[in-house]
C-alpha cells in the first residue's frame, strides 16, 4: 500500500522544483465542465410534472423519487418543494412533509395551498396549535375553502377549544351547506360537552345529507343506547356496521376524532351480544 501524505505536506515532499513547472501543474488539474443550469431547470420541472402525473394515478412511491430529484435540480422553486411535501402527506409520512413544506413557504410566501398543507402536516404530527396557526394564515388569504375551515375546527377540537371548533365547522357549512363532515363533527364536540340531544340533532342532520355514511349512524346508535332506547339503538348500530365495520375498531374511531366520552360508551355498546353477533357475521361474510 502506498503511503498517503497529508495535503499540506505535498510541496515539501515533492521539492521546491515542483512549483517551477506551472505547465505540468496546470495539466494535473481535472477539467470541470460548465453546468447547463437552464437544462437542469428544465429537467427538474419535467421530473416534477411526471411526479404530479404519477400521483394522480396513486403511484406515490415513483412520484416521490422524481419529486426528490426535482428539488435537487430546481432548489429555488417553491412549487416543487410543495409537491414533495404533499406527496409525503399522501403516503402517510407527515413528519417528513414539514421540512419541504416550510422550504416551499419560504420560497412562495402567501400561497394558501402551501399554508393549508402545513396545517395538515402539523396536525398529523399532533402539533395542533401549530396546525391551527398555519390554517388561520391560509384562511386569511383564501377564506372560501370549506375543507380548510373543517381542518381548523379539528385542530381546535383537539385542543379542547370547543367553542372555536364549532365556529370553524359552522363557517365551513356556511360555504357548503351539504358539507356533512363538519356537521358530524359539531355532534362530536357537543357530545364531549355533555349535550347529547344537540349531538343527536347534528348527527341526524348529517345522515339526512348522506345516508351512506356509517359514522353518524353509529354515533346516533350509541347516543340512543345511552338514553336507554336499546332496540332503536341496535337497529341503527347494525345498519352502521353493515356500511363500514371499521367503526367497530377503537383505534379507527380515535383516528376519526371520537372523544373519550363517546368512545367509552361505544365500547360498551359494541359489547352487547347482538352487536357482537352482528359484527361476527359481517366479518365472516367478508363484508
UniProtKB/TrEMBL annotation:
What Gene3D superfamilies does this protein map onto? Tetratricopeptide repeat domain (1.25.40.10)
**TPR repeat boundaries on the chain:** 78-111, 112-145, 146-179
Q: What is this protein called?
A: Tetratricopeptide repeat protein
Cite the Pfam families for this sequence.
TPR_16 (PF13432), TPR_8 (PF13181)
Cite the InterPro entries for this sequence.
Answer: TPR-like_helical_dom_sf, TPR_rpt, Ycf3/AcsC/BcsC/TPR_MFPF
Origin organism lineage: Bacteria, Bacillati, Cyanobacteriota, Cyanophyceae, Oculatellales
Superkingdom of source: Bacteria
Q: Signal peptide location in the record? A: 1-25
What keywords does the record list, in alphabetical order? Repeat, Signal, TPR repeat
